[in-house]
Amino acid sequence: MCLTTWVQFRDDKRPSVWRDISNHVKLEWAVAVGDRASGSEPEVLALKDCRRIALEGQRPTQNNSPSIITWEGRVVSLTVKEAEAILKASRESTAPAALGSFALLKAGLGAMPNVLLEKKVQSFFDDPATGLIRVKDVPVPEKLSAILRPYQATGYHWLVNNARNGLGCILADDMGLGKTVQAIALMLFLKKSHMLARPMLVIVPTGLLSNWSRELKKWAGDDLAFQVFHGNCKKLLANARPTGRPAAQAANWICPRCEELNNTLRDACNNCGAPKPPGAIGAAGAAAGAARAAAAPKAAGKGKRARALPEEQSAHIMLTSYGTFRTSAKNLMKEQQFAGIILDEAQNIKNHGTQVAKLVKEMADCCGTVRVALSGTPVENSLADLHSCFEFILPGYLANSKSEFTKEFAKPLAAAARKQDPVPEVAEKQRLLQRLIQPFVMRRLKSDKKIAADLPDKVEQNHDCELSPVQETCYQALQEKGQRDAEGVQGIERRGQVLAMLHALRKVCNHPACLDPEKYPQGTEQIPKSSDIEASGKCAKLHELLHSIIAAEEKVLIFSTYLATISLLKSQIEENFNSKARNRVFVGSGS
Predict the structure, then answer these.
(1) CA 262 and chain centroid, separation
(2) What is the helix (H) or strand (E) element at residue 591, kind and residue range?
(3) CATH of the structural domain 150-240+307-398, one choice from 3.40.50.10810, 3.30.565.10, 3.40.50.1100, 3.30.450.20
(4) Fewest C-beta in 10 Å: which of 180, 188, 432, 458?
(5) Class of 469-577 per CATH?
(6) 67-103 tens-digit pLDDT
(7) What is the mean pLDDT of residues 109-115?
(8) What pLDDT shows up at residue 263?
């Protein structure tokens, strides 16, 4: 039994979007009997009816244990602290502190135990048909030149639903499940909904710029025009911000009648025609701003605003790298408006303190409400990575600060994981965090049964390779030397010698040049050059396969345990296949 904030709708009017719910509810003190942990909804009692029982609970007990009181056929437990809170609220007759939309959203997710929502308010969040936290089917854009697999269609609907509600989200699908095509489908929806009058800012690692360019051309064709931004603010998009228009007015608005997401320039809803709520500038205001800009004297010298490009050079997407964004963000904030931001490989902002993480979050405050993070590894080192990403998509939602999140979740959960200690309090914190993030993080793995059923069958082909003569000679010499070295030692030292010999043998099987020159066996032929493909049976077979793969204009991933092998293969491939600009070799880490 405890004091709680009881949330009810003021009247029969309902908010159209979640951000308005705090204006449609009234709060009052009540007393909750029971809790959700018992598997049933708490019973809510009026504060005035609980004064007598609170007076009984205020009496001290042996060992300060809770009072067990029988009241109106109920047996309730009440601590002295809970009893005093009830009596204080009944004496002062003041309303509970106001709750913002985030707090009410958390309550709807069951993450605020001292806040209870009446059924009508609760259904606003989780009703299968009308609730906020639901995935409504939205037709896949006709312009998308791809047939989405069932799980991709689900991801697309989820992205659209969050965008329509003005909520950021993290698409954390496993690598290879098509996060890019789902994001492109979202942008096609936004364009069809007239939400890309300002461009979408897409930030990706440098090595993925060309891949995104290809994917946009492949899946969206000419329907999504894009520009790759390399840092020259004099060549910004055609729809650069008019002079005199502040960045804060770049935000989109959501129709209070039908929940349609609309561009800030529209004076009426594109879907139902409802008038735009007061606040942001519409088309008329924008025209006036443009007229003021035209009448203003032109700036000269450094710091002048970018001249808009001709209309035919306008774009729906600005594509740039994290490195370019880091050096150009301040100028972009001054010169360009964006409908929203999509981050690919969003783990690039996992560290709160890095410059790029700070700038991304600062830029997001100047953009529209669409914020999407794409990452197959949203948590790499600790839960602080997740909090940093949430500070981009929903700032302030998980906690007011990093230190608060660390104290509340990261530190206790990490300690419990190290000790493998299922403490009930820590387990409840884990469930609480899962409830908080569940609506805003979608994670699917290739190993999931439902996902695996939609994926094409994996085809494995093994190619047996024979050792070259120089490999055979080197292999035998290493094996004999290793056996001699291991004969004179025992225990852990012997195991170390055997392990070192096995690693050396594996490197020789890749290519003799992969072996450290100091460890190359004496008495054998001179180490062949790394460019000598025929010195390795595996390299010769690989190059034979690459000829057919590159001729078919396909892509290939090559994995190796050893960095020396990766470096050698990179040099060989660049020398033999890089006559065309598109045959580029990128070396990455799986860490």
Answers:
(1) 24
(2) none
(3) 3.40.50.10810
(4) 458
(5) alpha beta
(6) 666 656 666 666 666 666 766 766 666 667 788 888 8
(7) 80
(8) 55
